[in-house]
Structure prediction request, 478 residues.
Amino acid sequence: MVIKEEEQASSQPEEQTTSGKDTSENLPTVLDAPYFGRTARIVGSWESVDASGTPHEKNKRGELGKPLYNWYMNRVADDALARTAFPQSAADKRNTLQQVVSRAAKGDVNPDKFEVTDAKALSKHIKRVSEHLGAHVVGIAAVHPSMLYSGSRYPDDGTGATDAARGIKQGPDDMATKYPYAICLSTVWDYNMVQAHRHHIGDHSYHFSQSRLQLIYANLAAYIRELGYEAVQNRAQPMPTALAAGIGELGRNGMVITEKYGARIHLGDPILTNMPLVADKPIDIGVDDFCKVCRKCATTCPTNSITMDDKVVHNGVEKYKINWETCYRLRAYVMEFWEVCMSCVTVCPYTKPKVWWHQLTIGTLRRTPYALRPMLVRGLKFLDDKVWGTVPRKRVKWLTYDSGIKPVKKPRDQAVASVARSNGANGTNGTNGAHANGASANGHGEAPDPSEKMGYYYPLKENTRRFEIMEERAKRSK
Ligand code: SF4
Ligand code: SF4
Prediction:
């Protein structure tokens, strides 16, 4: 699932609408607040997000309703590749790399500490090591309590013992003092595979990049410990930390948008460390200016979860606020056809191949004075619509999958069985429904004309209506 900015902060207090086009002039600045760039500014008092209030945690407690609970806790994917990609899709979670990595015991910190004489050189070295390990984007943030969860979702202090088990209570202020730096890494979703949004091809790009990222993080954390410093995860919120680390800017679609890869990046759990480093700064690639004009993600979103309106102030932060709940709830109703939507990632004009004209466009935008940017953005948006279309619908073929094949809904008894199977399936080798590919799995229909260039993508706004009907039925059944 695409983890959205809002999903990090679902338990937060009131919001207020900001008026006008540029709110920077009519809102106060909070003096000791960290700077997250132009797209998300702290303008009022904030509270650290309670980790137990994030969507997956709420869902695990059954607070988001039965369909979503079953989607998260009791599903087994029909697709064998999907069952190895993500623990929640697996019949036997031990078949997923993510499960193996996240459950592995952490090593000790080397008592023979490497003496740091040049923090700048060490920061550069850590970035090069991260890239060697496979990270596509790397940044270092100066930690501020506003970036940290209150409480931890999966406590990790490098010893395998939880804070609670050792009677330790460390709030965001303590953690920010103890670990002044956060290292943010990301892997990217393959550009061509992401064109198959709302399709298993896109799912595989998403989930396997997540597996790779976990492995990279585990490798880097181990290296930091071997150098004699602590490396702690699962305490920093990925989005604000990534903004502070200069990974990208926050888009209207709730995703961090990077210079080279646009929105097609996976953010994992940043490493907090006491290693002396030099922090990076937030970047400006014109996302703030683009989002004011563009709205392609909001138009395309099948659940209307992305606002067409101006930014609002939510928990003291001025930003575009997505409706994380409607985005999240869709998943329970479409899992036979895809797992991760990603339409708002694919459609974003920043999500383009990493080629010279993409870099040139962003470079031009960045060098243009703020006052002239709206005019330039209108031209760029016009070109983007003409060349790339308003909705990406390219036919993608990958391995034996083909996004040109129309998905067909399975008979109800089969669909129910695929969810129910997991009750007795954990601990098995996952042979149930062992479809090897998307073409034969999930009741996908007949192959179309091989020369057809356009893929079949699950209907857009019709899908919204379907979702609403499902929601109404779910409410009635409560
Ligand atoms: S397009 Fe809408 S439903 Fe799909 S991931 Fe983005 S916000 Fe969620
Ligand atoms: S699609 Fe447009 S409005 Fe949405 S995040 Fe990308 S640039 Fe911003």
Q: What stands out?
A: The pocket of iron/sulfur cluster (ligand 2) is lined by residues 251-253, 290-291, 294-297, 347-350 (CB under 6 Å). The CA atoms of residues 48 and 146 lie 6 Å apart. The chain is about 35% helix and 10% strand. The first strand starts at residue 15 and ends at 17.
